[in-house]
Amino acid sequence: MENFLNNIMSNIGVTDVLDILIVAFLVYKALGFIRETRAEQLAKGLLLLVIATVLSDFFHLYTLHWLLSGLMTVGLIAIVVLFQPELRRALEHLGRSRFANIMNDIDKDEAKRMVQEMVRAIETMSSSKTGALMVIEREITLNDIVETGTVIDAFISAEMIGNVFYEGAPLHDGALIIRGDRLYAAGCVLPLTQNKELNKELGTRHRAGIGITENSDALVIIVSEETGVISLAQNGQLTRFIETKRIEKILLNMYLQEDKKGMVAEKLSRVFNRRDKNAEK
Question: Of 115, 216, 127, nearest to 175 (Cα)?
Answer without folding.
Answer: 216
